[in-house]
Amino acid sequence: xxxxxxxxxxxxxxxxxxxxxxxxxxxxxxxxxxxxxxxxxxxxxxxxxxxxxxxxxxxxxxxxxxxxxxxxxxxxxxxxxxxxxxxxxxxxxxxxxxxxxxxxxxxxxxxxxxxxxxxxxxxxxxxxxxxxxxxxxxxxxxxxxxxxxxxxxxxxxxxxxxxxxxxxxxxxxxxxxxxxxxxxxxxxxxxxxxxxxxxxxxxxxxxxxxxxxxxxxxxxxxxxxxxxxxxxxxxxxxxxxxxxxxxxxxxxxxxxxxxxxxxxxxxxxxxxxxxxxxxxxxxxxxxxxxxxxxxxxxxxxxxxxxxxxxxxxxxxxxxxxxxxxxxxxxxxxxxxxxxxxxxxxxxxxxxxxxxxxxxxxxxxxxxxxxxxxxxxxxxxxxxxxxxxxxxxxxxxxxxxxxxxxxxxxxxxxxxxxxxxxxxxxxxxxxxxxxxxxxxxxxxxxxxxxxxxxxxxxxxxx
Length: 461
What we know:
Layout: H1 5-23, E1 42-46, E2 49-52, E3 57-60, H2 73-85, H3 95-105, E4 114-118, H4 121-136, E5 140-145, H5 160-163, H6 167-170, E6 180-184, H7 200-217, E7 222-228, H8 243-253, E8 257-261, E9 288-291, E10 302-306, H9 308-315, H10 329-344, H11 347-368, E11 372-378, E12 381-386, H12 397-409, E13 412-413, E14 415-417, E15 423-426, H13 434-460
Parallel strand pairs: 3-13, 5-6, 5-7, 7-8, 8-9
Antiparallel strand pairs: 1-2, 2-3, 4-10, 9-10, 11-12, 12-15, 14-15
Helix pairs in contact: 2-10, 3-10, 4-9, 7-8, 11-13
């Protein structure tokens, strides 16, 4: 029996209302947006700029994923053209896979010659953990943190295995597992051993040594020291040169391996070198390197590079490895295009030049504005530590949040990190230029000057 027309119309209207309602339901409280009080709807991006639904242009100082620039035409073209030919998993032979591995190998020390391709940084770090445990036959992992009371520090991904080794995450969940050991982050500005310490490198490395010794007393064995080459979530930290070498010595002696997480900072971002771990010196080579985010300029691609010995131990398990998205022809074509752009547009040298210029401008502001406690960085990885007082270096959390909000009103997108969410983090697309740097710093100066004038006026009143 056919329904009366009015009933059909009513049911259709209800269905439409239900769909509309679902579209406007608030997101889960675990899902966060930038500028949550006044979120942006971004509909287009190009280079270092993003555009909202009203066509307003924003300078993007956050997005290290769009490494060579949002929607770079060469990268888009490479993915599109390969997609027209073939897109399949890595269980078939294809030149793109071999060519890409070969190109990556030329950027790394010779001993890092085995590559596993994946589709995300989290997958890469999870695989690195598996490799380390299989090779060493140990379980325990050492990671970095600021202190037991900090809110933000080491972060290596959102898989269960990685939440377990990310103090940034596990402090809010079930707590620290018995096989996880936390060493102090080598922060010479607000860490345990600061810039006035006679030998902060040895002091921080000895903390790792002591952790290993204590673990051994409890019958634990170290599989890996897992570290971001430049801790980002921890506050844009630049570990002192020589720290990795000393730590690696202690870790290797304990039968463990050194894993360098380059997911935030690799591919020439630091300017001087292609990889951030190379800032430590030519004599330092990690046992495993993980890559993600910038590797595909937004395309789902990641990689783990390691040695023949570690790869052989992993293969001995008899468990085969492949990845649907990581090593497919389209992903590898995209990765190759990113490497081409970095080389063709001299983005590594560009990061050095523009980064040095931006650092100088920011250090000039440090002299002018007492709220700026420290300016640190390398290439286009820079942190500005905002403080309430020079002596205690108390994090200026509220002031940093207000500055970020005001910058957004001036069409500049920036964010904060660090143990007190007071560190301005600069990780823009690599095409960020001198004019962008001047506009950014001039705007920060105007905002901080205005706030200082208001505060002085209130004090006088």
